[in-house]
Amino acid sequence: MKTKLTIVAGVVATALIGCTEQSDNNKDTALPDTPVAETVKTVYDKSTPSEQNTLLAEWTGPYQGVPAFDKAKLDDLKPALAIGMERQLKEIDAIANNPEPPTFENTIVEMERAGDDLSRIFTYWGIWSSNMSSPEFRDIQREMAPKLSAFFSKINQNEKLFERVKAVYNSDEMKTLRSDQKRLVQLTYDGFARNGATLDGEAKKRYAEINQELAKLHTQFSNNVLHDEENYVLFLTKEQLSGLPDSFVKAAAAAAESRDKKGQYAITNTRSSMDPFLTYSDERALREKVWKTYYNRGDNGDEYDNNALIAKILKLRHERVQLLGYDNYAQWRLEDRMAKNPENAFELMKSVWPAAIARVDEEVADMQAIADAEYQAAGKESIKIEPWDYRYYAEKVRKAKYALDSDEVKQYLQLDKLRDAMFYVAGELFNFTFTPIKPGTVPVFHEDVKVWEVTDKSSGEHIGLWYLDPFARKGKRSGAWATSYRSHTTFDGKENVLSSNNSNFIKGAPGEPVLVSWDDAETFFHEFGHALHALSSKVVYPSLNGGVRDYTEFQSQLLERWLLTDEVINNYLVHHETGKPIPAELVQKIKNASTFNEGFKTTEYLASAMVDLMLHTTDPENIDADKFERETLEKLNMPGELVMRHRTPHFGHIFSGEGYSAGYYGYIWAEVLTSDAAEAFAEAPGGFYDEEVSKKLVKHLFSVRNAVDPADAYRAFRGRDAKVEALMRDRGFPVK
């Protein structure tokens, strides 16, 4: 398996979540006295022999080998990590001390080969972390995160290794390499230079210490949020269900029964449960309780409160980038992204913000009018719209202005049919066929997980596998995400793709179809876009399967657009009882309301993105996270009727690791590309299934992954840079 642990030390949490990074070496094979060495010394002798440790074993079975999820044992994790680190250090040692002059093949390519053992182990780690977490795993995670950070720091700070990389980077050979090889060298060199390789003495030592401290804090932050998601469940009686759709009630009853509360109804502390409850429940006091429970995750003043952790994380990040000569963390983070600097990111967001909050004012006025009329008719004093009222009254406005009932739409959104619709789109655009694999053929980590083989529709060529883990459960983090257990490469023979989508839909009662909201259907398509990005890869080297964060959301955002195409609507959006297609008039209502509530959606997102960037451009010396959030939103004139999509104490994107830190703006940066690219399809003769535009889409925007600079890739597709005006038109905002 060649999914690489690319060199991004200091961002070890990213590696721990799933698709990983790369490694280091020492002059001799004996390990120095570091936390890594201690792990090897104290665990290795007690471990299961490596040949019997499933987590270390080569993947066997069909489809070029698959993870042995059915045999994985948590007791094997620490021994496997210890052995995997030791083996990779030896591999890197051989590269760094090679007596031959540095070349692309004996240095850069050999680094791409290193670390297969750890790469396999991190696949299992990712499942235990995100899909099947337990107190026992979290104990291991807390112990191992700083030791893994020390391990990655050793690689990034290996002077001999960096000197060889730098020699290749500055060599005459560089001029003779293919464009993808040059980019690999550039990314490898930058990975070292941006992560402490150029530091000396105490600065280098301190850099590594900070990474270890951050690894502990990121893990603690994430586990605190997961604690609050798991342990705050509201159980309702039948008398408290007023307004809730039947499908939601059945799912809530099933959730309660699974928690030994048969006869009651469970509202779990996840978005997939919170959002529909706030949309439909007539019980205002309960809406307030559910809202506060959800938005106070990590902010309850107890041992799981994250505010003090945030201050520590920000201070350590600031200190670390100052060692490298940057003024603030955001400067360092954005330097190698499309935005290039915080100013450009702020400029985009501030160009959209005024229109977004102005639209919120309009939306609130419409909602307030309905609330006033309702309370007047009941002979009661009216209320002021509060955040826990927004979704509820927005739904009433939707019905009044567009005669559109979200629950009516939901009757046509069956999870299985949506999955089939995604397969259809993948077949038309990517020429893929998805064939279900007989249960038991490929090991899975939970009975809910299903697997499909992906082949080329024309040639029958095997592309890879697609795993789907769709339902919420205890121990599974909230939200939706995609990951890859193995990525496409050809440099050591062609390797297939093992891609996975993960969601948190509420499992229905036995025999009942799972019905989802329109927003959830869009998210389903979105995450499938990430999977298609992985499955369509044509890159040669493992590290080029990575991506630039403010670009990688673009492909998945774009795929959402196919949900509203006629081909999907007419064939897959069928009523779960009658089987009849969704009526044309209802489709038209959906299209007419396509920019409805855009003020809410844009504002809650932008508030999170701007607070993130401001947190990482501010001197954090005396920062109070809770106060900073309140004062920053006040300066931005944030409407009081809603809050940030991710409040700071549970903002896992930026504090559970560093993948999105100072980079949450990337979603709207990518959305500009999305809106602009969607117009290319809308203008094409064949619309969203135009053959020529589809070929360009796959060739320039999906298959190249990170082998081409994103700006160049987009220009190759569109013939020019993207224009922000397309985004404004998409959202129904005024275009200047």
TrEMBL record:
Please give the name of this protein: oligopeptidase A
The Swiss-Prot or TrEMBL record annotates one GO molecular function as: carboxypeptidase activity
Entry note: cofactor: Binds 1 zinc ion.
Enzyme Commission designation: 3.4.24.70
Please, one GO biological process term?
proteolysis
What keywords are annotated for this sequence in UniProt?
A: Hydrolase, Metal-binding, Metalloprotease, Protease, Zinc
One Pfam short name? Peptidase_M3
Membrane-crossing ranges are none
Q: In this protein, which residues make up the domain named Oligopeptidase A N-terminal?
A: 88-204
Domain (Peptidase M3A/M3B catalytic) spans 277-731
Q: Entry's PANTHER family?
A: DIPEPTIDYL CARBOXYPEPTIDASE (PTHR43660)
Give yes or no: UniProt keyword RNA-binding: no
For this UniProt entry, which residues form the secretion signal?
none
For this chain, the family text in UniProt reads: Belongs to the peptidase M3 family.
Has keyword Hydrolase? yes
What is the native source organism of this protein?
Answer: Pleionea mediterranea
**Superkingdom of the organism of origin:** Bacteria
GO CC, alphabetical: cytosol
Which reaction does this chain catalyze?
A: Hydrolysis of oligopeptides, with broad specificity. Gly or Ala commonly occur as P1 or P1' residues, but more distant residues are also important, as is shown by the fact that Z-Gly-Pro-Gly-|-Gly-Pro-Ala is cleaved, but not Z-(Gly)(5)
Tell me which InterPro entries the record gives: M3A_DCP, MetalloPept_cat_dom_sf, Neurolysin/TOP_dom2, Neurolysin/TOP_N, OpdA_N, Pept_M3A_M3B, Pept_M3A_M3B_dom
Q: Which cofactor does it need?
A: Zn(2+)
